Every structure is written in C-alpha cells, then in structure tokens.
Amino acid sequence: MNTKILSKTALASIITASILFTACGDKATSEAKVIEEKATEKIAMPKKEDIEKEIAKQKETEKTVYTKHASIVSKVFKDVAKVSPDGKQMILVFGTNTDPYSDRLKADIEASADLQKRLQEDFSSYYFRAHENLRHKQFHEGELMDVDTKTMIAVYGIEATPTIIFTDANGKAVVVVPGYIPTKQFLVTMDFMAEGKWKGKDRKNGEVYEALRDFYIANKIEVIKKKAE
C-alpha cells in the first residue's frame, strides 16, 4: 500500500490556511450581527396599542363624516318594510352611509323644518340604504309585492347615490333625480309634483323633464341651458 507523507512545509501551509479561513468566517459573522442590530434599530415595529388607536381614529372619522345625520332618517321617513303611497304621491330616496352627498342631503333635511314637514305630511316618504339588501312589501298595480332592495335598485335603474324618485299616487315614477339636490330645488320639485305640472307629460321622451326645467326657471332656480341644435 502506498502512503504519502506530507512534508513539514506542506503541513504548515495547510494549518496556516485553516487559521486564516476560520478568522475570516468569524469576522463575517461578527459584521453580519452588527448590520442586523443596526437594521433592527432603524425599523421600529409599531406597538399593538398604537395600531388599535389608529384604527379607532379612522372609524370615528368615518362615523363623523357619513353617519352624523343618520337619526333624521327614522324621524322623518316611513318604515321601508311596507312601501305604499297610502293615497299620496311618494318620494323614494336611495342613499348610503359611505357617500358624503347622501349625508349632505340628510343634513339639509335635518336643518330644514319645511322639508321635514312636507316629507312627513304631503308625501309618503321612504329612505332606502342602498348598501343594505332588506326585504320590502312594495305597492305595485294595486297589490303589495315581495321585493328586496337590490331588486328595487335594478328596477329604477339607480346608478348613483343619492337618487330621489318622485312618484304619482299609484306609485309610478314621474321624476327621477340621480344625485344630490339642494333644499330649495327639493322644495320646488315637491311643488312641481303637488301642482300636477307633470300630468299629461311623457317621462320617457323627456316631456316631464322639459316641464320641470321650465318650472325651475320660473321659480328662479338656475339650470343648465339646453344647447342650440
């Protein structure tokens, strides 16, 4: 059997290299620890209680902006479990708690005694939370039908909130306002309905809205002028 014996010089070289590599490894490990410690110092994780406080603050902000005037709904509008004219024209309002314009409309109603009185006394008025899919008994062609909020939204073609629908005493839509309207315009639209200015006009071909536009102008409400053909 052949046995190779390392010379003293070769053995010394191997031992020296081993020591050098070991020293380099220790140095690298030490430097890595220093870098890790510095990174930990720079990136301070937020405390659990601070995160909870921030979430609570955001929720409170949303509550202040969008649900501040929520109580006016139950005060002025009728229960949507049953949606019926009850011998009056109807006003159906579709809004949400995540829409500032719905909140603004509620604020207007809360600030106007005239709006509140007329919504309660002159019309059968209902407010639907479009973000909630509730069950309703809706008056349709002399009968009460089972529908849900989503179905009503689809039937009326609602694409924005708030949307305000004015109906005749049979529950048929006459005027559909897709968006917020200020207090004076709301009251004048009520007058338009109450005075029957819409009667004999076709809503589908725009006659009702032409009559409403003229009524607005007569009552000093600024409207966008129709472009000349």
Question: In words, what does this structure look like?
Answer:
This protein is α/β, with parallel strands linked by helices and 229 residues long. Helices cover 49% and strands 17% of the residues. The protein has a domain at 65-179: Glutaredoxin (3-Layer(aba) Sandwich). Mean pLDDT is 81; it is low at 1-25 and 39-43. The chain contains eight helices and seven strands. The chain is globular, with a radius of gyration of 36 Å. It has helices at residues 8-42, 48-66, 71-76, 100-111, 113-121, 149-155, 183-194, 207-218; strands at residues 82-83, 89-95, 123-129, 135-140, 143-148, 163-167, 173-178. The N and C termini lie far apart (112 Å). The strands form two sheets. The protein has a four-stranded mixed beta sheet with strand order 3-2-6-7.
Shape: globular
Number of strands: 7
CATH class of the domain at 65-179: Alpha Beta
Q: Mean pLDDT across all residues, rounded?
A: 81
Number of helices: 8
Query: What's the order of the H and E elements?
Result: HHHEEHHEEEHEEHH
In terms of structural class, how would the helical and strand content be classed?
A: alpha/beta
What is the helical fraction, as a range of percent?
40-55%
CATH topology of the domain at 65-179: Glutaredoxin
- Can you summarize the main beta sheet? 4 strands, mixed
What would CATH call the architecture of the domain at 65-179?
3-Layer(aba) Sandwich
Rg over CA atoms? 36 Å
Strand order of the largest sheet: 3-2-6-7
Amino- and carboxy-terminal Cα gap: 112 Å
